[in-house]
Automatic annotation (TrEMBL):
Name of this chain's protein: B3 domain-containing protein
GO MF: DNA binding
Alphabetic keyword roster: DNA-binding, Nucleus, Transcription, Transcription regulation
GO cellular component labels: nucleus
SUPFAM superfamilies for the chain: DNA-binding pseudobarrel domain
Cited SMART domains: B3
Amino acid sequence: MQERQTGLKLKAKVRYLRSTMAIRAETPYFTKFLLPSHFSGTNSFMTFPCDFAVKHLHLTPQKIFLRYHNKMWSAMYKFKSVSNGHSVTGLYGEGWRKFVQDNELCRGDGCIFVLSEASKRVKVFDVHIVRVDD
């Protein structure tokens, strides 16, 4: 039930951000509900949509910057194939864990990742957080 409520809040936040032009129609973004595997242990890995990654980030490992409330964190991005023939993309490493800790993210929180800068060398996501307990 909590995740359903968070989902509704996440959709409302996307509508709000679009209405204020923080997300324009042509701006690439994706939403994600956080699971324990996204931030627990030393092998935390936050997956995101493969089609988004292929279109906007390509297949090479790179540093990605996350911006929230005028602070920046750098996290590593990678694209990897798994044994069943599928591919997985996402963020991992100390920078991702630090982002989660500094912003006190927990299971069920929703995040909107808006690709605000995307040159060949630098990728910056503005992150909007919807708390599960708000």
